[in-house]
Amino acid sequence: MIIINLDLIKEISRPSPTKIVLLVIDGLGGLPNPKTGKTELETADTPNLDQLATKGICGLIDLVSPGITPGSAPGHLALFGYDPLSFNIGRGVLEAMGIDFDLESGDVAARGNFCTVNEAGQVIDRRAGRISTEKCTELCQLLDGLMIEGVKLFVCPVREHRFIIVFRGEGLASEVSDSDPQQIGVAPRAITALNPQADTMAAIATQFIAQAKTLLAEHYPANMVLLRGFSQRPHLPTMGEVNKLKPAVIASYPMYRGLAKLVGMQVLETGASIEEEFKTLKQNYTDYDFFFLHIKGTDSAGEDGDFDRKVRIIQEVDNALPGLTSLEPDVIVVTGDHSTPALLKGHSWHPVPILLYSKWCRPDRVGEFSESACIFGGLGRFPATQIMPLAMANALKLNKFGA
What we know:
It is a single chain. The protein is an alpha/beta fold. The chain folds into two domains: 6-88 and 236-394, Alkaline Phosphatase, subunit A (3-Layer(aba) Sandwich); 94-231, no CATH class. Helix content is 31%, strand content 20%. It contains 15 helices and 14 strands. An eight-stranded mixed beta sheet has the order 10-9-11-1-12-13-2-14, with helices on both faces. Strands 3, 4, 5, 6, 7 and 8 form a six-stranded antiparallel beta sheet that branches. Strand 9, helix 9 and strand 10 (266-267) form a beta-alpha-beta unit.
């Protein structure tokens, strides 16, 4: 993978009044339905996306590297132009920042799932049937405020089955393994220290899980917890510093707001629906020159194995697209942060289709926005870290490099 040095972009970027909109349809890529031979995107009726594809230039992107299945954080970092191998941020910090938890220096945060285990201690549902946020809040109150070996624990709800846990005390290190096995039919993994400095953290996290198991025993289906993404707050150069942009994020789910905040985006308050997110874009359009607009539902549908629901959400995005194109941004990028085929019920390594539109691009002969069509697009197959330089160039925000 060719990595564009952020120092180079910082050197040649320039402010301008042009505007860029990055529309990320989470988990966009799919696999063909055995009955029809078409992916979710190919099955969906998307006249507006198809029309934009005919006026733009298309291709496929790899978020980390061919064959590597990306998590949401590295996938989005790559879309923002940051090498995900150099800036590997744990999920816990992102979730905490997304709900505006005030992380202090030395805090260790982890992402949690309420889950269901059977009598044998095996995970049979990693999401506890996607319990309601109200139920999650009630369960978090049972676990919040515990003290273990002088370390205070904060447990806060995020959404549905998801929560965060923050460990606050002296001498904590985040280099511990996850308890989430990322599959069903097996027991949660033991948390272990990945270096000697993390022995204390591993021991405290293990004690918390044991106490949580006892406290949740009568709360089926949410009778256990899974933890992953132990992390501490890092420092990243902001998009304002690197790209000379005034960026904003429109996202209904906290983790993506947290990630966007880490790279210097202003969080815009919005509703949970796709319609409300596009409305928020219109309301704030004059105030920023870069918008990251995130759609979550496609990924959730893919993880649930619900092919038809993912199709419907893609169609809903397409129906809302005129609300974006009518604003006439100088650059529109439409893509995803990874593939989430309903057939696999999870993230996958498959490259993701991308569409870039600007009046300065060279249109190719792609006539629809789909995986099979984008294979033949003029952008070819390339690393996702190159999207931001392409978007910046098409927005006339980059000076010439060299003499």
